[in-house]
Each structure stands twice: as structure tokens, then as C-alpha cells.
Write a structure and sequence with these properties.
globular; 2 helices; Immunoglobulin-like; Lipocalin; 42% strand; 269 residues
């Protein structure tokens, strides 16, 4: 047997295997899509500038804010029912995690309708999802009546802004902890506040509706609860590029104009 010939014979399959492996790495990440329909029970029409948004979220961590995997927007929303599809990359999905879909309808940042429960997704059931939204307005007020517009806008500066939502997720306050909040000083570009566990401080730049936070810092306490929410709060502040105020509600927006955090003004006693 010719040893050189034998080496040549087994080298070719190895080369072919390596080539196939390299080709596999070059393939784009596989993608999936979550589809469904959303509607609400109220027999009222949405204003023409309403926006419908649905998000796919990782809800695996109990007691922590949901992690948004991806989102889809209808702008303008039109009228119900709303047919949606949220695309996602397979590499972003963990087999042992739990996922859910939430939807909201907003007008200029003001919440009109929202789902009040997480609807499970990616749980092995490939049927289109059915989402039921509920009105976010109080009493029998209609979205077109703009109740927030009847309340004078709270000033950005010198107001105690209580954090109410991070993205679409409501904010919780752990026992024996302060509520997360911000206060932007009136006479200097400084901010103070609390993330729930730690005190916050830093500076800000505001020009028109543009807003950026800089030099954010805080104390370094470690709390048994609320740390994940506080971390998400700080990350949201770092991404802020704009803001808008409607009545007593402040929305902070990122570079893509998505709301990253919402606040409510609180009268100080």
C-alpha cells in the first residue's frame, strides 16, 4: 500500500467536512414570526393618529421586568381587528424560557388600550394568537375626548416624576423600598432620584423636546429585591433622546422614538 496515496484519500473527506462547516457558519440566522389578531370590546373608533404596538417578551424571571425580544408597530393603527406579526431571531430564544405577547394602543404617547395579561407565545402551539385589549381610560371616557389634555402639562423641571412603566411593563415597588423616581433641578442641569434600592444622581441636557442624561451615578447598595428593575431603569435612562409630556404623564423616548420609560407627576407635600 502506498502511504502517500492513503493520506491523500483521507484528506479529501476532511476538507469537505471543513468546507461544509464553514458554509454552515455563513448561513444567516434562522428567523421565526409570531402572528395573531388583537381587538377590544368597546364600540368606539380610534383617532386617526393612534398607533398599535405589539411586543414579544421574555417573562421567565419572576418578579423582574419582562425583556423585550422584538416588536411590531402599525402606524397609523387604523381600526380593529389588528392583524400583526412579530419577527424574531432563533438565536434570541432560549428553549427553557417562557415567552409572551403584549399589545398597546397609544396616541401621542398617551395609553388608550392595553392587554392586561401576558398571552403565552412560543409554547409549542403554532396557532395565531388572539389578544383582547382593555381601555386604559377611567370611567366611561372615550380616547377621543383626550382627558389628559384637560390637565395642565406638568413642567419637566422641578417635578417629582414617579416611574410607572419601563417599556410596556408596569413598575413594582418592593417592600421597604422607595418608589423609583426622578427630579430634574430647575436652576441647574442636575438630576436626583431613586432606582428603588439606590439613590441616583447625574446631569442632563434639554433643548426643546430633546433630552439626554449624562454622568449618571448612584449609591452601591445591594438589595434582596428590585435590582433587576433598577438596572433596567438605569439602562433606559442612558438610551433617552427625547421626551414628551401630556398632562401629568412624562414619556422618555429612545433613538427609535419608542417609549423606554413612563412617569407620573406627584404633588409633593
Amino acid at each position: 500500500m502506498n502511504l502517500r496515496t492513503d493520506k491523500t484519500m483521507w484528506k479529501h473527506p476532511v476538507r469537505q467536512t471543513l468546507a461544509a462547516f464553514a458554509a454552515t457558519l455563513a448561513l444567516p440566522a434562522l428567523a421565526g414570526i409570531v402572528t395573531g389578531t388583537a381587538t377590544y370590546r368597546e364600540r368606539i373608533a380610534l383617532p386617526p393618529d393612534a398607533v398599535f404596538e405589539v411586543t414579544l417578551q421574555d417573562v421567565s424571571r419572576a418578579g423582574a421586568p419582562a425583556l423585550v425580544i422584538d416588536r411590531s408597530t402599525l402606524d397609523p393603527a387604523g381600526q380593529p381587528p389588528f392583524h400583526f406579526g412579530v419577527a424574531y431571531q432563533d438565536q434570541a430564544i432560549e428553549p427553557d424560557h417562557r415567552y409572551a405577547v403584549r399589545a398597546v394602543i397609544r396616541q401621542h404617547g398617551r395609553l388608550l388600550f392595553t392587554t392586561d395579561t401576558h398571552v403565552p407565545a412560543l409554547d409549542g402551539n403554532n396557532a395565531p394568537l388572539q389578544l383582547q385589549l382593555v381601555s386604559a381610560s377611567r370611567g366611561e371616557e372615550k380616547p377621543s375626548e383626550k382627558p389628559a389634555a384637560q390637565v395642565p402639562d406638568s413642567p419637566l423641571r422641578g417635578t417629582y416624576w414617579k416611574l410607572t412603566r419601563l417599556g410596556d411593563a408596569p413598575v413594582s415597588v418592593a417592600e421597604r423600598q422607595r418608589e423609583p423616581h426622578l427630579i430634574l433641578a430647575t436652576h441647574e442641569a442636575r438630576l436626583s432620584g431613586n432606582g428603588g434600592c439606590n439613590s441616583l444622581m447625574g446631569g442632563y441636557e434639554a433643548d426643546g423636546d430633546r433630552l439626554r442624561f449624562k454622568g449618571l451615578a448612584g449609591t452601591m447598595m445591594a438589595c434582596a429585591q428590585g435590582m433587576a428593575q433598577e438596572t433596567q431603569f438605569l439602562h433606559a435612562l442612558e438610551t433617552v433622546r427625547r421626551y414628551r409630556i401630556a398632562g401629568r404623564q412624562l414619556d422618555l423616548l429612545g433613538a427609535d422614538n419608542a417609549v423606554v420609560a413612563s412617569f407620573e407627576s406627584v404633588a409633593l407635600r
